[in-house]
Amino acid sequence: PAWTEIFGVLSVATIKFEMLSTAPRSQLFLALADSSISTKGTKSGTFVMYNCARLATLFESYKCSMEQGLYPTFPPVSSLDFSLLHDEGEWLLLFNSILPFPDLLSQTAVLDCTAPGLHIAARTEMICKFLVQLSMDFSSYYNREARPHLFGQMFVRLQLLRAVREVLHTGLAMLGLPPLSHI
Prior knowledge:
Blueprint: H1 3-20, H2 45-67, H3 88-98, H4 101-108, E1 109-112, E2 119-122, H5 124-142, H6 151-174
Antiparallel strand pairs: 1-2
Helix pairs in contact: 2-5, 2-6, 3-5, 3-6, 5-6
């Protein structure tokens, strides 16, 4: 994709993320010329999109290596040995992000049956906060020191990161944001 397209997606994502991360009862100040929008650090939509692109690059790299015969094809998930996940960062991703994600989704849109008419409270700020935390946890895990591995452990880790990617993509889709595949 062209850089202008990537910058366009990032610009829209940053503005949408800033707006959607504000609770509905809070006042939103969006001064685009000001430094009040955090485009650096770990609290922004840009950081979430950056980590989404990192995941896309990781899986694209695996696919290319597999096509070159450097790695075997990905085995069925049922044949993976998840006991090979020993790293604290792996368990953090699993228990703090992947497993609780369905519950988070059920809490983000609440139907209010007490008022007349149809009223739905959309808690988009919860999704934004969750995606930022997931991105921080993934970034910490991804930036750790590389270690030698066996294919079994590599596949289990790739499956874990597939789940992280799925959570990120679903969360971004809930916010109306497309995932980035390059950055």
